[in-house]
Amino acid sequence: xxxxxxxxxxxxxxxxxxxxxxxxxxxxxxxxxxxxxxxxxxxxxxxxxxxxxxxxxxxxxxxxxxxxxxxxxxxxxxxxxxxxxxxxxxxxxxxxxxxxxxxxxxxxxxxxxxxxxxxxxxxxxxxxxxxxxxxxxxxxxxxxxxxxxxxxxxxxxxxxxxxxxxxxxxxxxxxxxxxxxxxxxxxxxxxxxxxxxxxxxxxxxxxxxxxxxxxxxxxxxxxxxxxxxxxxxxxxxxxxxxxxxxxxxxxxxxxxxxxxxxxxxxxxxxxxxxxxxxxxxxxxxxxxxxxxxxxxxxxxxxxxxxxxxxxxxxxxxxxxxxxxxxxxxxxxxxxxxxxxxxxxxxxxxxxxxxxxxxxxxxxxxxxxxxxxxxxxxxxxxxxxxxxxxxxxxxxxxxxxxxxxxxxxxxxxxxxxxxxxxxxxxxxxxxxxxxxxxxxxxxxxxxxxxxxxxxxxxxxxxxxxxxxxxxxxxxxxxxxxxxxxxxxxxxxxxxxxxxxxxxxxxxxxxxxxxxxxxxxxxxxxxxxxxx
Length: 530
Description:
The protein is an alpha+beta fold. It contains 12 helices and 18 strands. The protein has a 5-stranded mixed sheet with strand order 2-1-10-5-6. It starts with a helix and ends with a strand.
C-alpha cells in the first residue's frame, strides 16, 4: 500500500483512533489514582504534576491566578491539566493508528513525567511515589495497543498496515475492548476514590473525637458595637466556612492528630524536642481574636478574615527550650516552619518572641481547626502576612538564620520579612452600585494588626477627607469596622477610603503590586446615584 493509500484508508478511522487514545488516557489516570489511593494520594499524577507546575510558575502568574480565580485557582489548574492530558491522549490515538508502538510509547512517556513530578516534590517519600504514574502508564499503553490493534487488518499484516475503509478491521473486538476499558477505568476510579477516602478516615476520626479543653487564658469579650449592623459589611468574626484559603496544596492534607508529631530544633535550641498533640493539650491553652491577611490580597480584596483562635503560646515554648531572640543574644533570627506537604515558611524570631500572641493554634472559632485551615496544628502570628507566618499542617520548626536558608516563597521572589500594611476597604456600596439620593451608608473594615487602627477617613470625588465613625475595638490584632453617612447627590461619584494606624502612619496612596511584600494604595469604588 502506498503512502497516500495508507492516509486515505486511515481517514475514516481517525475518530475511533482518537477514542482509543482517550480511553487509554482514562485508563492510565484511573489506575494511577487507584494505586495512589492505596499508597499516598499526593503521589497521583494530576496532583504531582499540578504541584510541580505551581512550584515552577512565576510569582506574577500565580498572583494573576489568585486575582482572577480566587480560591478556585487550584480547581482551574487541575481542569487545565486534565484538558492538556485529554488532548495529548487524543493525539496519541491518532498517531498510533499509523505507528502503533510509537503511540503506546507516548503513553509511557506520560508515566515518566508523572513519576518525575511525584518523586521531585518536597513532600515525596521516595521512589514509591513513582508507582502510581508508572502503573497507570503501563496499563494505558496496553489499552491503546490493544484498541489500535482492533482497527488494523486481520491476519499477518505488518505493524504499519491500516485497514481499508469498512474492510478488515475487527468491529466486534473493538467494541468489546473499548467497553471493557471504559468499565475497568470506572472501576479503578471508584477504587481509587474509596482508598483515598480510607487514607483520611483516621484523621477525620481524630478530629471528630477531639474535645479541646477550656483555655486557661480566655479572649476578652468582644465589645458591644465592634460589629456594625450594616448590610453588606463583613461580619466581625469570619465563619470557618467563609474564611479565605490561599495555599499550594492541591489535596488538603488529612493528618491524624493521634500520630502527629512536631520537632523543634536548630540554632540556640538547647534541648531539641519532639512533641505530640497530647503534649500541646497538656500545656496552658490561650484564646485570642486575631485577623489574618494574605499577601496576595489586592487593595480592596477579600483575603482577610478574623477568627477566635485557641492554641499554645509559641514564645513560651521556645523559651523553655532555651531559645532567645536576636535582641537578647540568640544566634537564630529566622524560624523555619515546615508543613507535611513540603511547604516552608520563614518567620522572624524577634517578632515571634516580642510579646505578641504568636500561637501554635489547635482551634478556630470554638472547634478544632478545619482540615483546610491546618488541622491538627498551624501557626498564627499577629501582624505578619501568612506567607511569613501562617504555616498550616506544621510538622517541624527549625531555628536558623535568614542568611542560611531561603523558604519557599523567598526563593520565588517574595520578601523575607513582611509585616502587614495598614489597609482599609469599602464593603458597601459595591462598585457600580446605583444608590438613591439621600443618606447612603458607606462602610467597611480597616486593619493594621499588632498596631491597631486609630482613624478612618472617606473622600467623595476630589473633596476633603472626612472622618468616619469607628466601631468599638476588640484588640489591636483584629480588624476594625467603620461607617460614614454620605449625603449622596445625583450623578457619578468616586468614594475613597484611607486609614491611620496607632503609630500615626497614614495609609499610603502609592499603588504597589502584591509582590514582594503586599499591595498598597487607597481603595475606591465608583457609584452612580439615581
